[in-house]
Amino acid sequence: MKAIIVTGLSGAGKTQAIDCLEDMGYYCIDNMPPALIKSFIDLTGKGKGIDKAAFVIDVRGGRLFDDLKDSLEELKREAVDYKILFLEASDRTLLRRYNETRRNHPLSEGGPVAAGLARERERLEVLRKEADYVIDTSNMKSAQLWSEIKHLLTSGENNKSFIINIMSFGYKRGTPMAADMVFDMRFIPNPYYVKSLRPLTGNNAKVSKYVLKHKITDEFLQKAMDMIEMLIPFYIKEGKYSLNVCIGCTGGHHRSVAVANELHRRLQDSGKRTTLEHRDL
Q1: pLDDT digits (tens, 9 = 90+) for 180-191
Q2: Is residue 8 part of an annotated ligand binding site?
Q3: Is the pTM of this model over 0.85?
Q4: Domain ranges across the chain
Q5: Containing H/E element for 170?
Q6: 137 is in an annotated binding site
Q7: How far is CA 130 from CA 15, 123, 127, 226, 280, in A?
Q8: Which fold, 2-154?
């Protein structure tokens, strides 16, 4: 049997993921006690007509979740073909989603959602490192998440399923927590000090032209492209399926946005799979 274990942060999209897997023909079980996975596989392996299954396992299981490590070790000993799909999102995105649904976080104990998220990240840290696929859903709609899952599970080549998540941000609001690479654009002349450009953003053609016309900007983009191209095979070798590249400037409105847009364009032109988010716009 082929098995997918879906886990990750609460609010990151596990429900949408399991709907997608069900649509792909997986027998799906939500909030499965980890200790029962092997028993289920043994049961369905006896002519029951189920050749692939997906299990959602997360911190809702309470103390039962602690059995996951032992359960995974058992699956490895029995040579069960399984993959771990880990879903995550930025704290800012998760807090917004919780505010919209007015639900409590399973680890918040009635307190602030942010406290529950912090506990959950710490508890899932080891599992995230073990994951075969990690998807950041911060900037994804349901249809995009479905497309990403289908691509990952049907692609036979790691380099084709590798995705680069590009985010612009402003240092005024802090560095993104999930960053793998952070590039500081404050060396580029600032459009903020050009009166006609100040009220615009890096998404505007005039601001973009101003930022990209400088020789140092083009040199940076060339070197950033070379670095990312060089590192992708090594990230894949270490079991990573995504790279979070964060581009920062003072406020996150002008230089970082223009450069993130251009890096996104160049990477796509070179055949890379990318997402783009402007955190502080």
Answers
A1: 999 999 999 999
A2: yes
A3: no
A4: 2-154, 163-278
A5: strand 163-170
A6: no
A7: 21, 13, 5, 28, 31
A8: Rossmann fold (3.40.50)
